[in-house]
Amino acid sequence: MAGHVSALALSHDRAALLESKQATREPAWVKALILTVALGFFFVFLLLPLFVVFSEALAKGWRVYADALLEPDALSAVKLTLLAALISVPLNLVFGVCAAWAVTRFDFRGKQLLITLIDLPFSVSPVVAGLIYVLVFSSHGWVGPWLIAHGVKIIFAVPGIVLATVFVTVPFVARELIPLLQAQGREEEEAAVVLGARGWQVFWHVTLPNVRWALLYGVILSNARAMGEFGAVSVVSGHIRGETNTLPLHIEILYNEYNFTAAFAVASLLALLALVTLVVKSWVEWRQGRQAGEEH
Asked: In the chain, count of helices (H) and strands (E)?
C-alpha cells in the first residue's frame, strides 16, 4: 500500500514537472525572435555606442589620446569628479543605513513620508534639483547673501557640486537595504538584545553580516551615479574650466568647441569607469547569489 502511494506521488510529481515545462515551452521562431530583439537592442544601444566612443577617442593615435587625458583642465575635472564621489558616497552610505534601519526596525509617525522622501530624487529632474540649490544658496537666494557675508560660497563652487551629487545619489543605498532588512525581519536582532548585546554590537555582529553585499551593491550604484551625474551639477557648477567642471561637464565643453577627439577621449575614461563598475557589480551579485545558496 505504501509503495502504491509512493508510486502515485512520484507519478504526480512527474506530471506536474511535465506540465510546467509545457507551460513555458514556446515555438522555435518565438524564441529566435525574442533573442534577436534582445541581442539587437543590446548591440545598437550599448555595444555600438561604446565601440564608437573608443574608436573616435583613438582615431588620431595614442599620443593625442594621452594628451587629451593629461591636459590640465581634464586632470582638474578628474580630481573634482573623484572628490565629489568620495564625499557624497560615504554621506549617502551613512544616511542609507540609518534610513533603512529606521524604516525597517522602528514604528513611528511619518515613516511613509520618509520612504517617499528617499525616492524623491527618482521623481524630480536633476536640473530641477540644481535650480532648487541655486534658489536657496545663490547670491540672490534665501540664505546665499548671509553665507557670502560670512565667506561661504556654495553655488559655482565645490560645495554646490557635492550637494547636487549627494541629492541625486540619496536613494541607492537605502533602496538596496530596505527590502532586504524587511525580508529578514527583527528576530535575530531581538534575540541578540535578549542575550545582552547593545545597539552597536547588534548592528555590527548581526545585521551588517547579513546585509554587507547589498550594502556594497548600493555603494557601487551610488558611486557610478555620482561620477556620471550631469544635470544637477551642470546647474550649480557655473562651468568654470579648471575649477568647477566635472568629467561630464568637461566633455560637453570639448564637444561644443568641436574638439571631438579630446571629448571622446575623456568620454572613454568615463566609459572605462563604468565598465569597472559593471565588473564589480557583477561580482557582488555573484557573491550575493552564492551566499544565498549557502544559507539554503
From this structure: 17, 0
How many residues does the structure list for the chain?
Answer: 296
- Residues 121/167, Cβ–Cβ less than 8 Å: yes
Indicate the pTM of the whole model: 0.80
Burial of 277 (0-12, 13-18, 19+ CB in 10 A): middle
Cell 560670512 found at:
150
Q: For residue range 134-189, what is the model confidence (pLDDT) as tens digits?
A: 999 988 888 888 888 888 889 989 999 999 999 999 999 999 899 888 888 777 77
3-state SS, residue 160: helix
Question: In the structure grid, which three cell numbers stand for residue 151, read together?
Answer: 565667506
Q: At what angle do helices 158-169 and 126-137 cross, to 10 degrees?
A: 140
- Are the CB atoms for 249 and 84 separated by under 8 Å? no
Smallest CA-to-CA distance from 247 within 272, 270, 223 is with: 270
Crossing angle for the helix pair 62-70 and 260-295, to the nearest 10 degrees: 80
Which residues, 6 or more positions from 100, have their beta carbon under 8 angstroms from its beta carbon?
A: 173, 174, 177, 178, 181
Give 92: exposed, middle or buried? Use CB within 10 Å, 0-12, 13-18, 19+: buried
Q: How far apart are CA 30 and CA 20, in angstroms?
A: 18
Helices 72-105 and 158-169: crossing angle, nearest 10°?
40
Cell numbers that stand for 69 in this block: 587625458
Name which of 184, 174, 181, 159 is nearest 244 in CA terms: 159
Count of CA atoms in the C-beta half-sphere (13 A) of 165: 30
Residue whose cell numbers read 534665501: 142
What letter represents residue 218's amino acid?
Answer: G
Contact 83, 158 (CB under 8 A): yes
